[in-house]
Write a structure and sequence with these properties.
The protein has about 100 residues and is mostly helical. It has a domain of about 70 residues. About 75% of the residues lie in helices and about 5% in strands. A hairpin with a 2-residue loop joins strand 1 and strand 2. The protein is flat, with a radius of gyration of 21 Å. The protein starts with a helix and ends with a helix. The relative contact order is 0.07.
């Protein structure tokens, strides 16, 4: 049996719905435990870290080192020094712009 794209979309939708529906079967005491709260918080941080790294170093299917990495490092340093968030964003953008300008010429 050959499955075309729409069959895969419907199958993925049914699986997502079944997974969400199964979430209602989990006892509330499991979700309210401190251990589960720790796991959920750790997963959130790990997912955000992975997204940040991929958006910084990925270009299509290859890894690149460019101005985005410099901007991330500058922003990370500013956060470590407890700079206000707006300043962190501005410093990251300015460092990326300066790095791109220096790499052009």
């Amino acid at each position: 049996m050959s499955m075309d794209l729409w069959h895969w979309i419907v199958l993925a939708s049914v699986c997502a719905f079944a997974l969400k529906l199964a979430g209602y079967a989990v006892p509330a005491r499991w979700l309210q435990s401190p251990k589960m709260a720790h796991v959920a918080a750790s997963m959130t941080v790990a997912l955000l870290a992975a997204l940040t790294v991929m958006n910084t170093l990925a270009h299509g299917t290859s890894l690149v080192v460019d101005a985005r990495l410099v901007a991330l490092l500058v922003a990370g340093l500013a956060l470590w020094l407890r700079a206000p968030f707006l300043l962190v964003v501005v410093l990251g953008a300015v460092s990326a712009a300066i790095t791109r300008w220096l790499m052009q010429g």
